[in-house]
Write a structure and sequence with these properties.
The complex is a heterodimer of chains A (174) and B (514). Chain A has 174 residues and is of the alpha/beta class. Chain A has one domain: 3-Layer(aba) Sandwich (Rossmann fold). Chain A is 30% helix and 13% strand. Chain A is globular and about 55 Å long. In chain B, α5 runs antiparallel to α6, α6 runs antiparallel to α14 and α7 runs antiparallel to α8. Chain B has a 5-stranded mixed beta sheet. Chain B has a 3-stranded antiparallel beta sheet with strand order 6-7-8. In chain B, 40% of the residues lie in helices and 16% in strands. Chain B has 514 residues and is α+β, with helices and mostly antiparallel strands. Chain B has 2 domains: 103 residues, NADH:ubiquinone oxidoreductase Nqo5 subunit (Beta Polymerase, domain 2, 2-Layer Sandwich), CATH 3.30.460.80; 316 residues, Cytochrome-c3 Hydrogenase, chain B (Orthogonal Bundle). Chains A and B meet through α1, β1, α3 and α4 of A and α3, α7, α8 and α17 of B.
């Protein structure tokens, strides 16, 4: 026990400040400003792997490490879509996951946000569209913010999530 | 019969130095498999090729690892559609491979389980993605099919269905538990949810670009798959990558092992209720990833290995910085291991959970890291070493207990060994270039890539066309062999221990579903 406590004390706090939002990641704007201020930053996310190679999941995991400390920002990954405000979806959407993804979306209460993750979630990536792959997440459910990358860095992911729950910055194009 | 009777008949295969080919008839197919099993060998992969034309034979292949050699059996199945003899009685892991192969190519074994495996409802039973005749693009409205799970009946037995969407940040799959009270009587897995047509996608790519797809078969094993793919391509075209590139590839492979072991050790602590572990290992893993970003330019090495060598070189100051980080992480992990070992609550959850005895592991063909935790002393890095592992001489880590605690301990042991290997790779890095040109093979050929990834042996079977394309590519993750063993490992355990036991294996869905 003393060893555990000593280690906690000696390392201290390693969390870094979050990145600024990035309006270029927006795909559509569905939420009213009023709703956004209601949500604030107390956000619950349900992650759905709709066909990914597991690369994006590794970086999504990193958001929970003490450096990115996503819980410190009031954002939590939850176990059920019924508890979620946002779906964080990796792709490409496999044909065998399309129904599960749509059902997960339907089970998420309104108002809800969807962030598509990774080159495959945004465009189908190297897998493209085929007999088994439907390609981008937006082919199956509406997407608000898309974060490309293979895999996107945790910083970029955090930027995408924060962009989805913040109002467009005044003066930004789009 | 002794295994030795087959060796005079084998022919060389390009790619992995361990691989040899053996053409057999249906009788020889079974006899050779039996002899390999009798000599303590394992089935590493089984795949089939559909007929290229009506009247042409179909082919079934099985890759068997025995005595440090990889024996690749080829059985030609004459037209019209005959079935080939299933290997499931000799190697139980063959059952799912045969079902998956039938879904994709229409080449069927005479095994008793005729249920589809990789195919759900995305394509009909009489169409085969690798046999032509399928629509090019799937419809977004794929129905949900009704898979015939095995029902367990009796007083007080009930079912818990879990998935495909899981409660954490995990890949999708379905688990059907039959339980009494809290105890698991039976677990039946259903996979195939992330099947995204990888093997057909390969056939659309030029052979010199397939390594990018190989790296994305299973994102946590990107180095193992892309290296195995490149080993096959280089074998076919007679290219030898520069010594420096071999060392850099081994560096990548060990860094990938470190990443995964650090992530798993944190997650396993967390699953045992010790969040301290997740935070501590998460911090160390982030340090490693940042150091890799600085030295190699990538946090995850999906684009590090290319045909002919590596896509990066290491500058001396970056190599030094990476070496310092890895050495420090190794020391920190020693301290964390003491904390895990002394924590009564963690030990209580780890010890005895999800046990696979060495005898069961041997019979079912448990492989890789999980196999070594159950007395299966096979690590290709020492048993069938390829360059530069023949010079690096890694120490093999083996335990007998076969429980969660043993799979945790193997990770701790291998993590230290990988830190040591990184140190010796960096200090002995040969000088020279990191990439040579590779000419695409100009004939049809088969080559095998074989690499010990962090999870176990990763195999890539690659067939070229005569014009620089890919005729067939079967990437094979060791999860194929280990998923069925997980069904046995949880029997008699309580349902709440399943996440912990599952994590201790940490098997791939994407690498399996293809």
């Amino acid at each position: 026990m003393i060893r555990t406590l000593r280690r906690i004390a000696s390392i201290g706090i390693v969390s870094e400040p979050p990145p600024a939002t990035d309006d270029t990641l927006r795909v559509r704007e569905a939420l009213q400003q009023q709703v956004l201020s209601l949500l604030g930053r107390a956000l619950c996310i349900r992650q759905v792997d709709a066909g990914s190679c597991n690369g994006c999941e590794l970086e999504i995991h990193a958001l929970n490490n003490p450096v990115y400390n996503i819980e410190g920002l009031g954002i939590r990954f939850v176990a059920s879509p019924r508890h979620a405000d946002m779906l964080l979806v990796t792709g490409p959407v496999s044909a065998h996951m399309a129904t599960a993804l749509r059902r997960t979306y339907d089970a998420t209460p309104d108002p809800k946000l969807v962030v598509a993750v990774g080159d495959c979630g945004c465009s189908g990536g190297i897998f493209g569209e085929s007999y088994a792959s439907l390609g981008p997440v937006s082919r199956v459910i509406p997407v608000d913010v898309a974060v490309p990358g293979c895999p996107p860095s945790p910083e970029r992911l955090l930027q995408g999530i924060l962009t989805a729950v913040s109002a467009r910055r005044p003066g930004s194009a789009g | 019969m002794p295994l030795s009777r087959w060796w005079p008949q084998v022919t060389a295969l390009p790619g992995s130095p361990a691989a040899v080919a053996l053409e057999v008839d249906a009788e020889g197919w079974l006899a050779a498999a039996r002899d390999v099993a009798g000599a303590g060998g394992q089935l590493l992969a089984l795949w089939t090729n559909s007929r290229v034309a009506a009247g042409a034979p179909a082919t079934a292949r099985a890759a068997l690892l025995v005595d440090g050699r990889l024996l690749v059996l080829a059985l030609h199945i004459p037209a019209p559609a005959g079935r080939y003899p299933g290997l499931e009685e000799i190697f139980p892991a063959a059952a799912r491979m045969q079902r998956g192969a039938a879904d994709l190519t229409g080449v069927q074994s005479d095994g008793p389980d005729g249920r589809p495996w990789l195919r759900h409802a995305a394509w009909p039973a009489d169409a085969h993605p690798l046999g032509g005749g399928l629509p090019v693009v799937a419809k977004p409205s794929v129905a949900v099919d009704n898979y015939p799970f095995v029902r367990v009946e009796g007083e007080g037995v009930h079912e818990i269905p879990v998935g495909p969407v899981h409660a954490g940040i995990i890949e999708p799959g379905h688990f059907r538990f039959s339980i009494v009270g809290e105890k698991v009587l039976r677990l039946e897995q259903r996979l195939g949810y992330v099947h995204k047509g990888i093997e057909r996608r390969f056939t659309e790519l030029p052979i010199l670009e397939g390594h990018r797809l190989a790296a994305r078969v299973c994102g946590d094993s990107a180095v193992a798959f892309s290296w195995a793919y490149c080993q096959a391509v280089e074998g076919m075209s007679g290219t030898v990558p520069p010594a420096r590139a071999s060392y850099l590839r081994a560096l990548c492979l060990e860094l990938e092992r470190l990443q995964n072991h650090l992530g798993d050790l944190g997650a396993l602590g967390n699953d045992a209720g010790f969040a301290f572990g997740l935070a501590q290992f998460g911090r160390l893993k982030e340090q490693l990833l940042r150091s890799m970003q600085g030295a190699i330019g990538q946090r995850y090495l999906l684009d590090a290995i290319v045909p002919g060598g590596t896509a990066f070189d290491l500058r001396p100051p970056d190599a030094t910085a990476l070496g310092v980080t890895v050495e420090r992480i190794g020391k920190d992990v020693l301290e964390l291991r003491r904390i895990y070992d002394e924590h009564a609550g963690v030990r209580d959850r780890f010890v005895g959970a999800g046990q696979v005895t060495p005898e069961l592991a041997r019979r079912l063909g448990l492989t890789g890291l999980a196999g070594r935790a159950s007395g299966q002393a096979i690590d290709l890095r020492s048993d069938a070493p390829w360059s530069p592992y023949d010079e690096l001489r890694p120490v093999k880590c083996v335990l007998q207990e076969g429980d969660v605690a043993a799979r945790v301990a193997i990770r701790f042991d291998e993590l230290q060994e990988s830190c040591r290997l990184v140190g010796s790779i960096l200090s002995g890095l040969p000088r020279g270039g990191v990439r040579v040109a590779v000419a695409p093979p100009a004939t049809q050929a088969l080559a095998i890539g074989l690499i010990e990834g962090w999870r176990g042996p990763v195999l890539v079977a690659l067939e070229s066309t005569a014009s620089g394309g890919i005729q067939r590519c079967h990437p094979h993750d060791p999860s194929w062999q280990n998923w069925p063993v997980l069904e046995h490992a949880v029997i008699g355990n309580i349902v709440p221990d399943f996440p912990l036991i599952n994590k201790s294996f940490n098997l791939s869905y994407s690498g399996h579903d293809l």
